[in-house]
Amino acid sequence: MPAVTMSPPQAPPGSPPRRRVLPWAVIALWIVVVAVAVPFVGRLADVQRDENVDYLPESADSTQVVRVQDELPGGEGTELVVVYHRDGGLTEADRALAEERAAGVAEEYPLITEGAPEVIPSGDGATAMVPFVIGALAGDEEVSAAVTDVRERVAADLPAGLTVEVGGAGALQHDAEQVFESVDTTLMLVTVAIVAVLLIVTYRSPVLWLLPLLSVGVAAVTSLACVYALVQVFDLTVTTMSRSVMTVLLFGAGTDYALLLVARYREELRRHELPSAAMARALRGCAPALLASAGTVAAGLVCLLAADLNSSSGLGPVGAVGVLLALAVMLTLLPALLVVCGRRVFWPLIPAFGGEGRGRSVFARLGTSVSRRPVAILTGGVVLMGALALGTLNLPGTLRNADSFVDTPESVAAMDRLADAYPDRATQPLTVLARTDHAAEVVAAAAATPGVAAAEAGRAGNGWTEIDVYATDRPESDAEFATIEALRERLDRVAGAEALVGGASAQQLDLADTNARDRTLVIPLVLVLVFLVLAALLRALVAPAILLAAVAASWGAALGIGGLVFGPLLGLAGTDPSVVLLTFVFCVALGVDYGIFLVHRMREENLAGLDTRQAALAALRTTGGVIASAGVVLAATFAVLASLPVVNLVQIGFVVAVGVLLDTFLVRTYVVTAAAWLLGRRVWWPGALSRRAPSNSRTR
After folding, report:
1. Is residue 452 within 8 Å of 489, Cβ to Cβ?
2. C-alpha angle 49/54/56, rounded to 5°?
3. Is the dihedral angle over the CA atoms 360, 361, 363, 365 positive or is it negative?
4. What pLDDT digit, counting tens, does each position of 577-614 carry?
5. How many CB atoms lie within 10 A of CB 221?
6. Backbone phi, then psi, for 168, in 5-degree steps?
7. DSSP letter, residue 138
8. CB of 97 closer than 8 Å to CB of 89
9. Is a pLDDT exceeding 90 seen at residue 536?
């Protein structure tokens, strides 16, 4: 595989000016690219979409409900519910205040239902709810403004002891947007800080760490602009989750590539006098592994295009763009910067021409321990990973939309209070749409469905009638999901009604079902595609199978650790439906990276004359330190997600970070090396290396 080179190796001191100008030309080119990209970076936030319906495919019932609602009089309504509560019971004055402020909201906003909203007291008299639907709000900004205004109106000058909260789908959307607005900036700042600290610790140089960080920053700016262009051309769904994952993936993978390149460049500076020659040799040595690594990650992410869920399919190209641009920058801009700065950039640990590397490393000692007890180490590693994977049995159930945030927002607190105060009737209606000439039949069929408390016909238009259906169970509970499925099955039997069941709970059910279908399709596709990439790179079948099995095991173990942590330690009420699929793609694609770095170096050592067993130990000794540093950096960047206030990002960040650490320090160091030691040259079967006897021309 050809590599990008800065100049021919061992160029004489009087090399032509063109060769000395080349690094500066590369730097100038990237300056131009960044200048073009910067104006488009800020626009990406304007096209991000974070509502459940944006995640779902067009074929989902709940998606079609929203589309039809847009055509009804008043458009898609913004559902709100004001919740009043007083310990010991509401007073007459409290109820009068609730009615007065409900009338004020009706005067200010065009409600879909006529008249002032009804004040509905709870059975114990301590709570009252005022549900209503505002129509004719155009866009998220108007919805947020309306929610903020309603909250200010109902909370003004409350008598002592009376509390009020505003919930409902519109309030939840507003609260979610407030959380998401803080995510991008926080994530970027924390990620940059962590990567900077880790690079300083790794290089122990006051200057060198700046070059990889600057290069990753260039890749980040360019990636955001490219993703914005993809949205405009292909109408991709970009969510806060996909943008956040792209950020940590780009910084983590880009820094990993920089660490590997700089480590190889440092080696070559001891063998070549000119930095340009050392860089040319370093690129020839590590570019194939970097290309295969980025190609594997990109291929795994592109497999997400096969997913029906818009958020997952959109994440595929978004993540792939980030990884490929990180690779492009690390193979062009970073080498140019290093060559321009020369050896002095490594100060105070400047590699001297003709000097020797460090002495016996900790990874050399680890390799020796593997060679002494390979069977015990391999068996122990497999048993440990299997035991940890059993923790998946303890994963909490499906995450409710109301539990999607680490800190409870007002909208969620309101809905929880309603669920306790009105146990016999759901306070969040399901939305059924049916053809108007069959609406009466649909209302009757819905009301007769087990688990339904009431069904009421509402507004109509364009041949459709909207029907509010109230379940008897809490919103997004397993019992309510069963009611939704029963309702859909029964209404499908009403001939000609074309009934659709939607609403917030139905959207959550459709998300879970779509994620389940996506897992059965995407996971096998990722395994096959990554295996083919590895087989092409290593020219073997056994080694790719070992690497793939090892990273899949580390993912299972990491997910199992998540099962032991999410509920018992972090108090998370559920597992986001997307976590299994997305963490699998990232753990496998990123984990294979480190296997590629190790096994590709092992193949180099094998071709240079060492037998396979000694080549495995030599590869571990030469790549162990840099891969360990890369693993820590990647894990730390994904761990940043676990500090954010959104539960699905916390869970994805935790599982991927733990999976990377397991793969770096257990799977690659011990399990893969022990397997290679036991199999010997059979690890390269059926390639030529499996039949080639070692020349014994080199020793280590």
Report:
1. no
2. 145
3. positive
4. 889 999 999 898 888 877 787 887 888 888 877 888 88
5. 18
6. 100, 170
7. -
8. no
9. no
